[in-house]
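Quick one: structure tokens for this chain, please?
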Amino acid sequence: MTAVDGVSFEVERGEIVGIVGESGSGKTMTALSILRLVPEPGRITNGRILFEEQDVVQMTDEEIREFRGNDVAMIFQDPMTSLNPVLRIGFQVEEAMAAHRRFSRRQAMERVVPLLQRVRIPAAAQRVRDYPHQFSGGMRQRAMIAMGVSNQPSLLIADEPTTALDVTVQASIIELTRELSRELRASVILITHNMALIASLCQRVIVMYAGRIVEQGPTRAIFKNPQHPYTWSLLRSMPRIDEQTHEKLISIKGLPPDLGKLPAGCKFHPRCRFRIDRCLTEEPTLDEVDPGQLARCWVLMKNVADPEAAR
């Protein structure tokens, strides 16, 4: 079974790129592959992952340990399971720096409180001695961000960083991510199923379905003129306050396919209201449909006369 197939994209220095799709679309597995953290028995069978002209796939064990945390850091989805419940928050942030030897132990200790202050943890000098269970969900996520940026990485991968947080805390986490990206000139890959987060933070968006990229391009262009029916459906299932007309939201019927039993042709065709006969037998390639915008589709939304009328 192939969890991620033929995924190829670039992230420029300082750019924020979003990867969006339903659960099981391959978003997290793509991110784990970048750090060579694919859980066994999974493995990377072919392809290259280039970071500043170095192939991560070919790195030795020592090189990959140096690479993780120093060059690329990851903020995982659930901070409660990522943080050690029996160690103080300050020690865990300090350990993230000391383990990668970018700072001495003394320098790491001195940086802990300023880092927690920078991610807006109140009374950081006192809270540094707290345990994870004494932090709220939003504060735990901020602590994870502090650990992620502690070694000043060039790329920060955030896997569903706002899951289970209320809307106001989500907004503050997103704004914090944007600010840190600017300050560090760090690139960010944001993994989410929330199109609203993509719209508010990302310059480019990658839409994944069944382990494949089905559309990618500038966020503004894709939100204005989505070309793949899956992207169009995702956007039409989301309420928008900037629309003058109150149109009925559209749900995507059915469920994502079993990756071990993928359908022939376009993998989205069993759920697509715009499919044609060709979709059932031939899988489309990812081609440029507008300047800078790519889509994997035989139909394309710009060729559909009345999308709302299709059934």
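DSSP finds eleven helices and ten strands in the chain.
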